[in-house]
Amino acid sequence: MSRVAYFDCASGASGDMVLGALVDLGLPLDRLRAELAKLPLEGYRLEARSVDRAGMRATKVEVVVEADGHDHDHGHEEGHGHDHPHRPLSEILRMIDASTLDATVKERASALFRRLGEAEAAVHGIEVEDVAFHEVGAVDSIVDVVGAIIGLGWLDVDRFLASPLNVGSGTVKIAHGEYPVPPPATLRLVSGVPVYGDGKGELLTPTGALLVTAHASGYGPLPPLRPEGVGHGAGERDTPGRPNVLRLIVGDEVALAEAPAGRVLVLESELDDMSPQLFGPLLDRLLAAGALDAFYTPVQMKKGRPGVLLTVVAPPERRTTIEELLFAETTTLGVRWLEWDRTVLERETVSVETEFGPVAVKVARREGRVYNVAPEFDDCLARARAAGRPVKEVWGITLAAYHAQKAKAT
Question: Using CA of residue 405, residue 408, residue 409, residue 410, what is the dihedral sign?
Answer without folding.
Answer: positive
